[in-house]
Amino acid sequence: MIPSMVVDLLMQNKINYVKLFSASDNVLEAFSMTDIGLEITMPNQSTQKMKTQADVNEWVVQIIVRHPNVHFMYVCIGTQPLSTRFFNQTYPEAIQVLDWMQQALNLMNKSEIKATMSHFTDVLIPAKKPSEGAFRKDLEPNITKSCQILQSYNAPIGVVIFPLVNVNDLFNGDTEFAFLENNSTSVFKDGDKTYSNVIEVMYDMFDVALEKVGCPNMTIIIDAIGWPTDGIKDGNIPNAQRFYQGLAKFVASKKGTPRRPGPIDVYIHNLSDENKINKNAGSFMRHWGIYKFDGQPKFNFDLQGLGRDVKLVPAIGITHMPKRWCIFNDRYTSDIGKIAYNVFDDEVKYACDTADCTALDPGGSCSNLTYIQRLSYAFNMGFQKAAQSVYNKSCYYNGYGKIVSNDPSTPSCTFPVEILAAEIPNFTGYAQSLAHVLKPSSISLMTAVVQMLYICFTLMCTC
């Protein structure tokens, strides 16, 4: 899917704010002359390359100054650079880059663009009450320095909240406490304030922690929030729809939290699934999209928060590959009792090492398949990942694979067919591979993530 098609999808859905996790030239050009406000990201790895103010100045020239007709709003330094929940290391270099970035923007008469930084809630100590909120001692010096830099430039700070993860970590897996309808038995009082959902808890806990390090009353953006639709218990489409509808009403109400009443800017994570996200933190991390891989919405969603049964506008112009699937060859069904299971399991591992088999995980949409169906699902994911290539024997699997034209999907488990990649992103200067396009703010409320995986720019590409 070419960048202009993605921008059209955003505009048709009246999504006015988007976050790019680093951007290529042709992606930024697609946003040129539109009213869509962008938050772009300097990737964690790029922050390590910034050794001087001059390095950051050059980055700003290449990414921002060269695109004068793009509506830049924020530059986020790193992707949760101090978090260890979803990454193998931290990036403390990002703190100095944060200061250099705002200086570079000011130097080039771009002071209306603010440098910012966001953190996942794992930077907080484990606590259940907002009043107990505090940053981890090992991170406190860097977070203190970063919030002081942001305060000096009157810039916001971001918090990343994944409610289903938070309730599993802190509230004994009480999924109901992750929703906003106030139906949970985990409701509690903290002083004179009542907390009925984990979103308000984590937001206010982050606010208390900031106050304790000398950064009170900062503008806090929810820089990412979402609900996975596969690969984890209670991570499914009906729950995601319920969550987003409740979140939209919450944001539209502008009621805020018990500690911080008033409107909150919120970025939805995210527009589409991402099949190249590292699985170390859980395969469900690949399945946050409100759109399916082919640009079709997963569920109805009223972005304005009015509770209407509104259909999102689908992507136009998506082309699927032929309706062909790779499955386990039933001629060898009898072999399953004669040959060690690890032989077949090795074939599944071979397919799933590169393809996305999240749906087979416990709690996933395909976790209830029979053994043969699981083999077929894995074979097909590898086959589609290889663009249905016959020449490289992508459906061979030691002779156990077979290409068919009849859809092997079950009522609960979809065997996908690949979509065609349409464009190769054009990278220049300091631009890095585009990992997403995502999210919004409070006015239009939500937004999204688009992504480039390998050399394709598409809504969930398995190429």
Automatic annotation (TrEMBL):
Q: Which biological process terms from the Gene Ontology are attached to this UniProt entry? A: carbohydrate metabolic process
Q: Which GO terms describe its molecular function?
A: hydrolase activity, hydrolyzing O-glycosyl compounds
SUPFAM superfamilies cross-referenced by the UniProt entry: (Trans)glycosidases
Organism taxonomic ancestry: Eukaryota, Viridiplantae, Streptophyta, Embryophyta, Tracheophyta
What's the protein here called?
Answer: Glucan endo-1,3-beta-glucosidase 8-like
Q: Which residues form the X8 domain?
A: 324-415
Q: Which UniProt keywords apply?
A: Disulfide bond, Glycosidase, Hydrolase, Signal
Q: Tell me if Hydrolase is a UniProt keyword of this record.
A: yes
**Protein family:** Belongs to the glycosyl hydrolase 17 family.
Q: Give the source's domain of life in one word.
A: Eukaryota
Gene3D superfamilies in the record:
Glycosidases
